[in-house]
Design brief:
single chain, 294 residues, alpha/beta, Rossmann fold, Helicase, Ruva Protein, domain 3, 5-stranded parallel sheet, 11 helices, 50% helix, N-acetylmuramic acid 6-phosphate etherase, Glucokinase_regulatory_CS, SIS_dom_sf, Etherase_MurQ, ether hydrolase activity
């Protein structure tokens, strides 16, 4: 099966003779093409985000699966959700062909292990409640294809992110996110514009999901945990701004509720003590906007 991501473009046949300035211009041009590919896929990404929200609201988990560059980008997206949005670590997982060590050292042949995909999903008790996002530039990576097929057989929600129009992952996905980036500047080097498109698409998808779930309020990361000096300062400024108060009051209120930003905002906006603010947030399932508007 031909793969556009592996094709060699005649346009780039002599790049080994190009001066550095032309090389850089050509590579950067490819990044613009990557963004354009994501833009074309926006409708399906939005539909996938809504479907993922529904599963997560009902207790499901967001699980990524990939190999090589695709797996590393998927792992990056999963890893950043807990610190950015305080999304539970046990509900944002990434399965990498070849195991966690393949994130740093390439495991040749791991992407061809179909049985490992099923074993890896079973090892995390993957179920119908969950979401599987399979990422594969070629769209034909056996590890990812097998994982998506297994997940779909369980009636879990499946999303495929891929760059080759002939990708077979599409046949196992409820949402097939095709990022048609075409031939690479260096033939087959899908860490380039295919990887850029995947990074942007995954970032877009997960951010949209977190916002729709209520982890963001007025564009601010109100679920953030202030775990260092920089984040403590950001938390105080966030509470002061969103509660329309001064930094000193924001700092005292944060201290009174163990530095939980949302609780501090509800306490100040609704003139409540900590217990009442926490109860209001609990009734709103943690959604700050609903808590403030109730």
């Amino acid at each position: 099966m031909n793969s556009t991501t592996e094709a060699a473009s005649k346009r780039y046949a002599t790049i080994d003779k190009w001066p550095a300035a032309d090389l850089v211009d050509g590579i950067v041009e490819g990044q613009f093409a990557a963004i354009a590919a994501v833009s074309e896929a926006s409708p399906i990404i939005a539909a996938a985000a809504d479907a993922i929200c529904e599963r997560l609201e009902n207790g499901g988990r967001l699980i990524y699966m990939g190999a090589g560059t695709s797996g590393r980008l998927a792992t990056l997206d999963a890893a950043e959700l807990p610190p950015t949005y305080n999304f539970p670590r046990d509900r944002a997982l990434s399965l990498m062909a070849g195991g966690p060590e393949a994130f740093l050292v390439a495991k040749e042949g791991a992407e061809d292990d179909e049985a490992a995909a099923v074993t890896d999903l079973e090892s995390v008790d993957f179920s119908q409640k969950d979401v599987l996002v399979g990422v594969a530039a070629s769209g034909n990576t056996p590890y990812v294809v097998s994982g998506l097929a297994h997940a779909r057989a369980l009636r879990a929600l499946t999303v495929a992110v891929f760059n080759n129009p002939q990708g077979s992952v599409a046949g196992h996905a409820d949402f097939a996110v095709l990022l048609s980036t075409g031939a690479e500047f260096v033939a087959g080097s899908t860490r380039m514009k295919a990887g850029t498109a995947q990074k942007v698409a995954l970032n877009t998808l997960s951010t949209a999901v977190m916002i729709r779930l209520g982890y963001v309020y007025q564009g601010r990361m109100v679920e953030m945990k202030p775990t260092n000096a920089k984040l403590h300062q950001r938390a105080k400024e966030m509470v002061a701004e969103l509660a329309d108060t001064d930094i000193e009051t924001a700092a005292r209120t944060l201290s009174a509720c163990d530095n939980v930003i949302k609780t501090a905002i509800v306490m100040l906006n609704r003139d409540l003590d900590r217990g009442a603010a926490e109860a209001k947030l609990a009734a709103a399932k943690g959604n700050l906007r609903r808590a403030l508007e109730s």
